Inverse folding.
């Protein structure tokens, strides 16, 4: 619900007339930045100490002056947003980092913003405590590239080249804090809603509302087939609230992150990734097995057992083909020490995917993705689907791909899991990188 503050009696002098008008604060008083107790409070040399918490001047300097001291104007142009610092410079230098960092202008020190694995998954070993660090992983790891985001949104949805890329997902005048929760359960009423859909972005921040806080904006609204995963080290409590109740389990308290993320990540938008050196895969979540698409068993035969018999709790074999995942069930929104923004904790346990080519639970190379997949699927080398001996003929419904072609000439050689199992793919890619043709349906 939007709060509105009315400040009467403001005098506007125009063409000799004295008018009485009203000023509306709109969403801001509901936001984490405008909160009168925990909101923005800048501490900086020369900045007035008596400015109230949540005051606009903690971010905006309307005339570039503080206590009569007029700093030199920007050498290039005036700030479009009257901010006290450059809106965006690069991946590690951004206006938002002036507070969301270990060294901070915010009163009391740096602002704590843990990973999603910590906040929703209860992964308390999480060592990342601020937004800047979340976007500052080394090249071997992964994070959303802010320059790529800015390039993508420029010219779309009322964004310009001068926009802050953080504002692609967050309305700074509306965003609420999602509390840094421990393993203890917290009620849905204590949660905040931090995101706003980029496709609904408006130049009027009051018109650009939050996503997830209202009716029709939860995962339960997106699909009745949603099941929350377990939180870290427990089979009793569920994401995102850490409760053991039905509303938490069925997505009634979780933002519809599928609709949110597919504003950008879908089957039509071409998004360049500087870090990967290529465009991201396009995909339609309506076709994906982990999306709305049916997760069937492809008529299991002798060497391909029914995958639904190998599904792990809290997912159930009897309804295995109906589940639809939220993007955040597997991915970190900001960044991760794993590749492809893969979460450090998934469905109750730690996940390590450093390169994808490393060893999985079996010790065999190129099977590191099993560390993620095995959080929900009981996959084993030798189960028929993932170990095709070169001595047996191809098995239906495959396209004619025997073990030698698919998994290499040696017994412990395996094609990289992500050759076939990636967003938007329905083709068999063999050990040598050659396309062996369509599998018959999506492979992810």
């Amino acid at each position: 619900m939007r709060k509105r503050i009315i400040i009467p009696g403001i005098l506007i002098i125009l063409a000799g007339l004295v008018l009485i008008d009203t000023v509306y604060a709109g969403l801001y008083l509901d936001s984490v930045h405008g909160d009168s107790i925990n909101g923005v409070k800048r501490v900086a040399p020369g900045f007035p100490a008596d400015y109230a918490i949540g005051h606009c001047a903690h971010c905006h300097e309307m005339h570039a002056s503080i206590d009569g001291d007029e700093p030199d104007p920007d050498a290039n142009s005036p700030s479009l947003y009257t901010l006290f610092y450059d809106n965006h410079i690069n991946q590690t230098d951004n206006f938002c980092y002036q507070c969301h960092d270990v060294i901070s202008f915010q009163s009391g020190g740096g602002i704590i913003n843990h990973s999603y694995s910590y906040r929703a998954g209860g992964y308390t070993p999480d060592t990342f405590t601020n937004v800047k660090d979340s976007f500052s992983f080394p090249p071997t790891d992964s994070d959303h590239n802010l320059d790529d985001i800015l390039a993508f949104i420029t010219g779309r949805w009322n964004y310009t080249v001068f926009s802050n890329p953080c504002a692609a997902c967050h309305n700074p005048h509306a965003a609420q804090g999602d509390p840094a929760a421990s393993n203890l359960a917290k009620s849905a009423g204590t949660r905040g809603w931090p995101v706003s859909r980029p496709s609904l972005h408006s130049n009027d921040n009051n018109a650009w509302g939050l996503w997830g806080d209202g009716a029709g904006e939860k995962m339960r609204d997106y699909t009745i087939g949603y099941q929350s995963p377990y939180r870290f080290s427990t089979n009793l409590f569920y994401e995102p609230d850490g409760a053991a109740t039905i509303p938490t389990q069925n997505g009634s308290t979780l933002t519809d992150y599928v609709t949110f993320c597919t504003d950008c990540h879908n089957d039509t938008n071409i998004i360049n990734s500087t870090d990967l050196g290529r465009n991201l895969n396009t995909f339609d979540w309506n076709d994906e097995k982990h999306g709305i698409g049916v997760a069937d068993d492809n008529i299991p035969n002798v060497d391909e057992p029914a995958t639904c018999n190998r599904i792990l709790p809290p997912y159930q074999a009897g309804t295995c083909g109906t589940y639809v995942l939220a993007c955040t069930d597997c991915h970190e929104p900001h960044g991760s020490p794993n590749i492809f923004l893969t979460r450090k904790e998934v469905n109750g346990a730690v996940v390590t995917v450093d390169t994808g080519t490393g060893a999985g639970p079996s010790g065999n190379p190129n099977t590191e993705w099993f560390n993620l997949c095995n959080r929900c699927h009981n996959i084993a080398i030798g189960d028929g689907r993932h170990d095709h001996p070169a001595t047996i003929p191809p098995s239906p419904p495959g396209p004619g791909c025997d073990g030698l072609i698919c998994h290499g000439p040696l017994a412990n050689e395996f094609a990289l899991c992500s050759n076939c199992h990636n967003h938007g793919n329905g083709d068999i890619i063999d050990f040598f990188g050659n396309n062996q043709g369509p599998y018959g349906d999506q492979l992810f």
